[in-house]
């Protein structure tokens, strides 16, 4: 794929990932709920750069994803970059592709490096769902009662049908004969894998701590809330006798992820050992109500572009917006469950919308280095109907914990 010629430019350059760090993920109204979204992004940005002692002045651009930007003020990515002590001369961009935003930021960054437009781009995503505001339109004046709109619910609702995204997922589950038991089993596995990965000290390699009142946050909050027996007793959330509950879906949460991309030749010149190489990426579009299937379609297209098969992929990260995603990977792609989300997924961690697309790539790097695999695939669905996927190849350096304060 990289050997195709670009008109007027020549051969595309290879793109590598040289650093990846994230904040812990806080649950709704939890320990990170008092930390502004821009501050979470600043900490992820600075932590990523600091993990390899990369000078912020040498960045060409910062591209971060964010979904619900209401109330964040003008140019929140530039705010975050300045908060991370990145020089004001470095270009900044915000992208919004709903849940895929963090991964789209990487694709945009990779494309600019491949074509020679940039050398080094700091990508990622951030969201504080706890701090999303309500809104009311009264610019024309107000007589009588006015309705407050919950911008968080707006962000979780299919605009085409007006249905909450969980209801759309229930219809897909019914069509494909996916049961409540199937969903619960995936959710239980997500928590158990996350707890084991935490115990084995894999997760700490990903995380840079966040200062909070009375101390610091340095571990994912939702993992600690697992109650297996209670999970099985919960009522369905979106329809009577449905498959989705509050426990087997991803949680409203807060966090940020940074990913530093670099041209492979530039990394070699700077004597930086990359973590992984980007092999291919793709996007897919579906009917709005079938958005969960978008991740699978994008993954299939990505495999074809990379001239790889499912058997070539050692580990897969499918973002668990709902527990249906790993099930769809098995049913529609033939993936083996023991190669999906082996350190746990968004059901156990949480799903900060703008962060998750980049988080699954950071997690995939961690898994590949811990398990010794070569190729990994990350896939995520997005509201509105679609999905995004990326294939990476593990290189030699292994992520390490860092001691860092912004």
Quick take:
The protein is an alpha+beta fold and 406 residues long.
Describe the structure.
This protein has 406 residues and is α+β, with helices and mostly antiparallel strands. Helix content is 32%, strand content 21%. It contains twelve helices and 16 strands. Strands 3, 4, 5, 6, 7, 12, 13, 14, 15 and 16 form a ten-stranded mixed beta sheet that branches. Strand 15 and strand 16 form a beta hairpin. Residues 1-9 have low confidence and may be disordered.
Topology:
Layout: E1 5-6, E2 10-11, E3 15-22, E4 26-27, H1 37-50, E5 61-65, H2 76-83, E6 91-95, H3 101-114, E7 120-128, E8 134-135, E9 149-150, H4 151-155, H5 165-175, H6 180-199, E10 210-212, E11 215-217, H7 228-233, E12 253-263, H8 264-269, E13 276-285, H9 291-306, E14 315-318, H10 324-333, H11 346-349, H12 356-371, E15 375-382, E16 386-394
Parallel strand pairs: 5-6, 5-7, 14-15
Antiparallel strand pairs: 1-2, 3-12, 3-13, 4-12, 7-12, 8-9, 10-11, 13-16, 15-16
Helix pairs in contact: 1-2, 3-12, 9-10
């Amino acid at each position: 794929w990289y050997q195709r010629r670009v008109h007027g430019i020549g051969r595309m350059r290879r793109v590598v990932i040289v650093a990846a760090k994230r904040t812990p993920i806080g649950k709704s109204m939890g320990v990170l709920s008092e930390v502004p979204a821009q501050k979470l992004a600043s900490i992820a940005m600075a932590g990523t750069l600091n993990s390899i002692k990369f000078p912020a002045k040498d960045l060409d651009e910062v591209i971060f994803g964010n979904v619900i930007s209401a109330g964040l003020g003008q140019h929140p990515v530039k705010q975050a970059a300045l908060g991370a002590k990145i020089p004001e001369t470095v270009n900044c961009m915000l992208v919004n592709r709903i849940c895929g935003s963090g991964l789209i930021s990487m694709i945009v960054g990779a494309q600019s490096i491949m074509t020679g437009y940039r050398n080094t781009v700091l990508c990622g995503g951030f969201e504080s769902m706890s701090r999303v505001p309500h809104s009311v339109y009264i610019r024309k004046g107000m007589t009588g009662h006015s309705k407050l709109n919950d911008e968080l619910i707006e962000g979780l609702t299919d605009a085409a049908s007006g249905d909450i995204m969980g209801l759309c997922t229930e219809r897909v589950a019914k069509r494909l004969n996916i049961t409540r038991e199937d969903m619960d089993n995936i959710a239980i596995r997500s928590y158990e894998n996350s707890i084991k990965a935490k115990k084995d000290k894999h997760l700490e390699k990903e995380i840079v701590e966040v200062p909070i009142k009375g101390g610091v946050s340095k571990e994912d909050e939702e993992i600690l809330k697992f109650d297996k027996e209670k999970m099985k007793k919960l009522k369905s959330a979106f329809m009577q006798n449905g498959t989705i509950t509050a426990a087997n879906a991803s949680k409203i949460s807060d966090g940020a992820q940074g990913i530093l991309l670099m041209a492979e030749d530039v990394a070699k010149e700077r004597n930086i050992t990359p973590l992984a190489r980007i092999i291919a990426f793709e996007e897919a579009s579906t009917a709005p109500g079938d958005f969960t299937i978008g991740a699978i379609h994008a993954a299939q297209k990505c495999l074809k572009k990379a001239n790889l098969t499912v058997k070539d992929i050692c580990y897969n990260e499918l973002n668990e917006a709902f527990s249906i995603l790993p099930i769809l990977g098995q049913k529609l792609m033939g993936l083996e469950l023991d190669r999906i989300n082996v350190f746990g997924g968004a059901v156990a961690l949480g799903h900060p919308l703008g962060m998750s697309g980049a988080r699954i790539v950071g997690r995939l790097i961690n898994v590949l280095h811990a398990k010794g695999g070569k190729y990994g695939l990350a896939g995520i669905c997005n509201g509105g109907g679609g999905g995004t996927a990326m294939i990476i190849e593990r290189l030699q350096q292994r992520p390490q914990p860092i001691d860092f304060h912004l």
